[in-house]
Amino acid sequence: LALKGSNYAGLLERHRIHTKNVEHVVDSLRNERIEVRLVKRREYNEETVRWADAVISAGGDGTMLLAASKVFDKFKPVIGVNTDPERSEGHLCLPVRYTHSFPEALQKLYRGEFRWQWRQRIRLYLEGTGINPTPVDLHEQQLSQEQYSRAHINERFQDQRSEISGPHLLPVRALNEVFIGESLSSRYAVCSVSFRENYKSCKPSFKFSLHRASYYEISVDDGPWEKQKSSGLNVCTGTGSKAWSYNINKVANQAVEEILKIAKKHGGLNLPLNAELVQKVTNDYNDSLLYSPEEPKMLFSIREPIVNRVFSSSRQRGFSSKVCVRSRCWDACMVVDGGTSFEFNDGAIASILIDTEDALCTVLLEE
Amino acid sequence: LALKGSNYAGLLERHRIHTKNVEHVVDSLRNERIEVRLVKRREYNEETVRWADAVISAGGDGTMLLAASKVFDKFKPVIGVNTDPERSEGHLCLPVRYTHSFPEALQKLYRGEFRWQWRQRIRLYLEGTGINPTPVDLHEQQLSQEQYSRAHINERFQDQRSEISGPHLLPVRALNEVFIGESLSSRYAVCSVSFRENYKSCKPSFKFSLHRASYYEISVDDGPWEKQKSSGLNVCTGTGSKAWSYNINKVANQAVEEILKIAKKHGGLNLPLNAELVQKVTNDYNDSLLYSPEEPKMLFSIREPIVNRVFSSSRQRGFSSKVCVRSRCWDACMVVDGGTSFEFNDGAIASILIDTEDALCTVLLEE
Predict the structure, then answer these.
(1) Name one GO cellular component term (chains A, B) (predicted).
(2) Among B189, B262, B347, whose Cβ lies nearest the Cβ of A285?
(3) Nearest to B269 among A269, A315, A338 (CB)
(4) B363: in domain
(5) Which domain holds residue A54?
(6) How large is the ipTM?
(7) What's B240's DSSP letter?
């Protein structure tokens, strides 16, 4: 790592801080005679979840997403503790001060000084010819030789199963968002080959360039199908409206200023165009992109839509109860919470919606 | 392909059309007793360019980018013929009608009914510890076993060369843009493994999920260094201002309408907010994103900047003569025209600028 110029000392320190914070949480629980199983990412599975009365994630928002990804029981609370506040926003975690005084959080839970919060999640149905409903876990850094073979066998098995075209309910629930887009550009296929020392066997790692437009058709709330070309489609929950969706949709101060300047030039602005007005308008616009995690509605956003300059009546963004997408992509994926991926190529049809039965149970402590 | 649900008949037809169009161009040239070498992508190299007095690309915009990528002589004309008008915009090519009547274009060239157009291009310097100035061609669909080994040897050789930290002028000139961003998210590492029938040997192909924020520091026109976190940095030419840059920066009708509504709510709009005003403002704003390919200036754009809601004075977009970027990325690339890629990881520093000596010579036919 140091040879690459990475900050090894910094990584080590953050690991030390994280480990200390985890110990604090575990000790606080055991001091209350609560039975605790401490599991790492790779050991965390549905059996562990079944054993638990509640699940606490210790890490950042990504760890919380991982923790939630294996919980399908609406009444099993999942609580996030942010053990890496320097690096993680902790949107999905308890406020940072409980990281160092977790007993305070436990006391509030005991005294009922909290309310339940149900974060709505998205479910996915997949159908069509040649679909592959096998999820792939993106949190694995690399596949071992054994996993290559297993995936290979899965793929061959899938070829036989692709005759069954009825809608499959995928074994995932999106807490933040589902993102659909081309993951591999066959024009921009192989980026570079590097053999790293930390690979158990000498496996090439391929890096792929990012950009190739995604083609698909979209129908919102059972409306008419519309062909689109873009950098991808994001469908999020209220929770996810603060995440990637926010970054796709938010407008910059600079852009608002220029838009208002142009409107003024057309004679349409009578207030002085000062920094204060620009900031207000920018903030109001960006605030309108956020909504409550408990609202059972989805926000879909087209990322970098490719359109011509003719006035288009189709919306770049909107709320909906149901989104259907037909892939016309060459090599695309549906990615759930940045953690699980499904092939989504030409011929596949996804139905995306919220069922309140899939909500995730979390807590909001009183302040 | 058909098993995957791809439109094999459609692909075949487009190939037929392309082949017919190429024959038309070659025949038109030979009818004028012009010596023609017809080369495919893999045979196109610098020796061929040296042999030629002029280069004609037959394909879409991508083929034109490829053709230009091997021309470094300011006085060697490169002309694009769009043989795939159904699928390619042809921004970089002659107007589509010359595809079917190429002799007409030749006549104009003979009679001087054209002017030279010099499309400015971007050059890149790379320096820093552990850098790897080896370019990787993204237009290869896959590397053969032999190329794996060669790249491997290159990599080992590079490890010895990384002591030389002085700025390397990279052997590329960007006609559209340089894009810098994380190409591999180590959190979202391996997407899926599929073994395809058309691979000569049984090689796994890896697909990677798209999203991991890029960390870097940027200095514009030798200004102060600024830390940024975003979905990537795009630095384009006037030519490229119509390409990916445009899609990153353009504003949607819907967004302008909402911004003007909010401004009106704050009492700042006296014109009626009608569709016509919204369209005018949208068009003016989007037009302002474009500029002449011959202007020796670059447009940098931050894609999906990650900022907090405090008023930020740094611009999301702007013109500049020079952009310097220090990578703080884990696994990033600098991608030139979507075709060539360079590692750009923590420790690497890129200097990005336009030198008019690097301009590409093209033609604008009189209409």
Answers:
(1) mitochondrion
(2) B262
(3) A269
(4) no
(5) 2-113
(6) 0.78
(7) G
